[in-house]
Amino acid sequence: MSSRESPLLYAVSKKAGKAIMDYGMIQEGDKIAVAVSGGKDSLSLLHILRHRQKVSPVDFEFTAVHVDFDFADFDPQRLVDYLGAHNFPYMVEKVDSLKGERYEDIDCFRWSGKRRKALFDLAGRQGFTKIAFGHHLDDIVETILLNQFYRGEVSAMKPKQVLFQGKITIIRPLAYVREEAMAALAQTLNILSVGQSKCANDDTSHRMKIKHMLRQMEKDNPAIVSNIFKSLQNIKEEYLLNPV
User: Fold this and answer.
1) Is-contact 12 169, C-beta < 8 A?
2) Residue 26, in any domain of the structure
3) Per-chain mean pLDDT for the chain
């Protein structure tokens, strides 16, 4: 694919490629499970990884994985139809830990925890070496502030995180991509949400409050989001609080 055929996909893929290289996210022969909720970011990530396969110096494969909790008010068929129509290999993991509950009633923390556990279990059974999430730069920055404001700790979602003594590795290829670029790419690719969002009550969550705060602050300082991201790469340990 050339930049003339799809300049925005090319540009976002290039940023994803830099993040993949900087953090050593993908190695030869990797078998990657891409966590797909059906939201715009995770669906766009599939298209980006397909492009990376064409230009990457290493061979890897990926499969879209959707965790189906069998909610009383949600049917994943539209998502399955989309994946099939675009020739993405996919798997649907049915989990009954929330069966019969209403998707709209599940809080973000509970939903994401159950989903992550299901993905880990699936990866172990199916031999996936990596799990890729569609978190972008804004998601990471919001998490940094969420952890400071509500957990009293300095931490973030790492672009690459090795878990369980190396048995599972989480990667976030969109770590260098802004949310606005992902929204524009989804529009270019004619992607509409065909599944669940990050969680049903995301609009009233602490994360959304942080997002609105950052948007307001960016009006005075356009570099504020990128600066927060860079701050965890530029830690001045001598100025941290270290109790005697």
Assistant:
1) no
2) yes
3) 88
